[in-house]
Amino acid sequence: MKTVIKPIQNEAALLIPSKSLLVIADLHIGIEYSLYQQGIHIGSRVDLLIKRVKNMINKHMVKEILILGDVKHVVPSSPHSQKTDLHRFFKEFKDLRLHVIPGNHDGGINRFIPKEVEIHSSKGWVLDDESIGFVHGHRWPSEKVMRCSTIVAAHTHPSVMLKDKMGYRFFEQCWVNTKTDAEKTMIRYSSTSKSDLIIMPAFNPLCGGVAVNVDGVLGPLGKIIDVNSSKVYLLDGSYIGRVKSLKLHI
C-alpha cells in the first residue's frame, strides 16, 4: 500500500499521517542578518516560524519533524544572532524526534543544533517502507532515493509568476508535481523507473523564490524532469496548470 503524502493547506509543509511525520524545508534561520547587511532592518522572525510549526503539531498530532535542508542561512560563518535563533527553534521541539537532511546552506550544521537531532546524508533519506525518498535537491540523490516511487525535494523555493488584468506581475509560492524521466535518469543511475517528484515551497517566506514558469527547477533534479509538463499548485491547494501553459500568461 502506497504511503499517503498530504500537503497541509495554506502551509509550505507536508504530512505523512501514517508516520505522524511533518516535513518542512528551507527555514533559512538567520536570514535576517543577511538582510540587515543589505540595509533591511526587520529583526528576528524565528518565533513566527516556531508558532506555525507548533500549530501544525497540535492540529495534526505530529510526533516527528523532518527538515529538508537549509536549516540555517548564513555560510560559512554563523553570526551570534543565527546561533541564538537556531538554539531557540530546536529547544521548542526537543520532545519530538527530529531529522535533518543538510542543504547547501548547512555546512557544519552539527555544531549548531542539539546532538539528539538525527542528521542524515545530504544525498537523502528513505522512509522505512522505502516508498518515499527525501533530499534537499542541491546535489544528486543516492541510488536508494532514486529507486523510491515518490521523491520529495526542496532547494528551488518554487514560486509562479502571474499577471493581473492591469498587467502587473506578482509571485505566489507553489508546489511543483512532476515525474523523473527514465531515459535521463538511467544515464546516471541503474534505476530506470519513473518516480513522482514533489518540490516543496520554502517554509520561510523571507528567502524569496524561483519562478518555475520563468527559470525552471534548480539543481540536478531539474536535469531529469520535463519542467514544461510539471503541474503547479498554490498553497491553498488550487491547481493552476502546467508550467508550459503558465508561460503563456507572462
Describe this protein's structure:
With 250 residues, the protein is an alpha/beta fold. It has a single domain (6-247), classed as Purple Acid Phosphatase, chain A, domain 2 (4-Layer Sandwich). The chain is built from 7 helices and 15 strands. A hairpin with a 5-residue loop joins strand 10 (158-163) and strand 11 (169-179). The protein is globular, with a radius of gyration of 18 Å. It starts with 5 loop residues before the first strand and ends with a helix. The model has no long low-confidence stretch (mean pLDDT 93).
Brief synopsis:
By secondary structure, this protein is α/β, with parallel strands linked by helices. Helices cover 21% and strands 24% of the residues. It has helices spanning 31-37, 46-60, 80-92, 143-146, 182-185, 212-215, 243-247, and strands spanning 6-7, 14-16, 21-24, 64-67, 97-100, 118-119, 125-126, 132-134, 150-153, 158-163, 169-179, 196-199, 210-211, 231-234, 239-242.
